[in-house]
Description:
Blueprint: H1 2-21, E1 26-34, E2 48-53, H2 59-64, E3 66-73, E4 76-79, E5 82-88, E6 93-104, E7 107-114, E8 129-136
Antiparallel strand pairs: 1-8, 2-7, 3-4, 3-8, 5-6, 6-7
Amino acid sequence: MKAKKLFLPLVALMMMLLASSCSKDVTIAYEYTVYPNQWVTEPGINYYYATFENVDITPDVELDGMVVAYVYDDGRWNQLPYVYPYYSNAEDKTWAENIRFDWTTNEVTFIVQDLDGGMPEAINNSPVMTFKVCVLR
Length: 137
């Protein structure tokens, strides 16, 4: 009986410690709009990218935090990476684009590449893309 009385307070204490050690401050302060003419590429790579400054992504976040990103599509936010089915009326063809992101201290980069690894054909004719970045410290 004595062991049972000690067990319940220990479980409660462990639960409190676990819950408090996992708490993070969340910053959802950044929304980025990428216009078709903002996508860039370089010789030798087969994707487009757009890089933005984000001062909330600090070295502390790299060590002990997390960054997640979303793209707005079809009336809802979709977590990255996201595979976007792109349909071309002119070609009567559908292909898939992989939308992902990379981050490092003070910046975030959004990347668009065809799912087959090829260069996205219509990125400069595509609509404006909106992204949301959440930084957890």
